[in-house]
Design brief:
α4 packs across α11, α4 packs parallel to α12 and α10 packs antiparallel against α11. The longest helix has about 30 residues. The protein has about 400 residues and is mainly alpha-helical. It contains 18 helices and no strands. It has a single domain, classed as Na+/H+ antiporter like fold (Up-down Bundle), CATH 1.20.1530.
Length: about 400
């Protein structure tokens, strides 16, 4: 009877999370604020009020893992390899400079603050990730077109992939008891390779099956099932679910003859409740007192990360001999941070808890979440500023098509 009562409680909480989270997202949208912020804030309120108990949050961990898998798939699905290879040299120079530059600056700043390399490396790795959804939404809202817009879209598609790979290397050493050895690169490298083999293999099988599933709905169901399977297998073997689903998305985007845009609306119907659950539960891990305590560290993190993105993108664009329009404005378009960073911060927190450093993990998670609250408010404004300064905002009613 106790188990049955707990199951009923979980169902009630899930229904409450999705309903109230959706309403909060709509309210924030009307206030011209990204709806993800509404999901997080309502989760923060529900968690602090005790409406979502800690044991329920732990029981709903599969929702978090599954949401991370879908986030990975959507990132991979934005990467057209043919377009990437055409401008690969310039793009990779910009990508490495802005991502590694940000990683370096944030790591140095937090090393000076704490003197613990493993903590500094985690913050540095998390800082390299960006939020594609918020940025693309601004580009579409202002119907932006031009050289800068295209560079932004390509960098967004690759930025989080590099961030996830960087995080997988860093998290291997995320322990104060870690001892350096000649084998330090083997474990994360193997995990990255296995993740791409898993996602690529599942994607290839799915592409081969597409002849049997011509119906749009059937193909959507098969795609969703593949993402769930990929996430489950990744969890079973202890490899990155985000990376494996990135590989799945890349494979489908580049080998499948199916047009994802054809069932994008239906896909959104599936994704939205899952993402609401993910971000509300993310917010529920927090409490107001902790956020106030970490506020100064979140401000330092935001300042260091913004410096890395702006100057890293500027330096990379200059090295790649891009136009001044790109060099002077790209960094301001890369300030938003949300889903991937929060997901990785959650994984870091869980990893450190298993190592007996739960307090440190909780601190990292709260700093990242507090910084996301700041960046989700100011990040879209940075995108708007850069597009207007580059004169790529269409002032008429022309409809533009975004091709990531």
């Amino acid at each position: 009877m106790q188990t049955e009562a707990f199951t009923v409680q979980i169902l009630l909480i899930v229904g409450l999370i999705i309903t109230i989270g959706f309403a909060a997202g709509k309210i924030f949208q009307r206030l011209k604020i990204p709806r993800v912020l509404g999901f997080i804030v309502i989760g923060l309120i529900l968690g602090s009020a005790g409406v979502i108990p800690p044991d329920i949050i732990e029981s709903l961990r599969p929702i978090i893992n599954l949401a991370l898998g879908f986030i990975g798939f959507t990132i991979g699905g934005e990467l057209d390899l043919n377009k990437l290879f055409k401008g690969s040299k310039k793009l990779l120079i910009i990508l490495v400079c802005e991502a590694i530059g940000t990683f370096f600056i944030v790591t140095v700043v937090f090393q000076l603050l704490f003197g613990e390399l493993y903590i500094s490396l985690i913050f540095g790795a998390l800082a390299s990730a960006t939020a594609p959804a918020a940025t693309v939404e601004v580009i579409r809202e202002y119907c932006a077109k031009g050289e800068l817009t295209q560079v932004i879209l390509f960098v967004l598609a690759l930025d989080d992939i590099l961030a996830v790979i960087l995080f997988n290397f860093v998290i291997t050493y995320a322990s104060p008891q870690f001892v350096w050895s000649v084998f330090i690169l083997i474990t994360p490298l193997i995990e990255i390779v296995l993740a791409f083999i898993l996602g690529g293999s599942l994607g290839y099988i799915l592409v081969k099956l597409e002849e049997l599933f011509k119906d749009e709905t059937e193909w959507l169901i098969l795609t969703v099932a593949s993402i769930i399977l990929c996430t489950g297998v990744s969890q079973f073997f202890g490899i990155s679910g985000i990376l494996s689903n990135i590989a799945l998305g890349i494979t489908m985007e580049n080998l499948s003859s199916q047009e994802f845009k054809r069932f994008e609306e239906k896909f959104e119907i599936i994704l939205l409740p899952l993402f609401i659950g993910f971000f509300v539960l993310t917010g529920a891990h927090l409490n107001f007192a902790i956020l106030i305590e970490v506020g100064i560290f979140a401000a330092i993190y935001v300042a260091a990360r913004s410096t890395g993105k702006i100057f890293g993108a500027f330096g990379g664009a200059k090295l790649a001999r891009e136009s001044p329009k790109v060099a002077n404005n790209l960094g301001f378009s890369l300030l938003s941070q949300a889903g991937v960073a929060l997901g990785l911060a959650y994984l870091a927190s869980s990893h450190l808890a298993m190592l007996g450093n739960a307090t440190v993990g909780f601190f990292i998670f709260n700093v990242i979440t507090a910084s996301v609250l700041i960046m989700d408010l100011f990040g879209p404004l940075g995108v708007k500023f850069s597009l207007q300064r580059a004169k790529e905002v269409m002032l008429d009613e022309e409809i533009c098509e975004i091709e990531p």
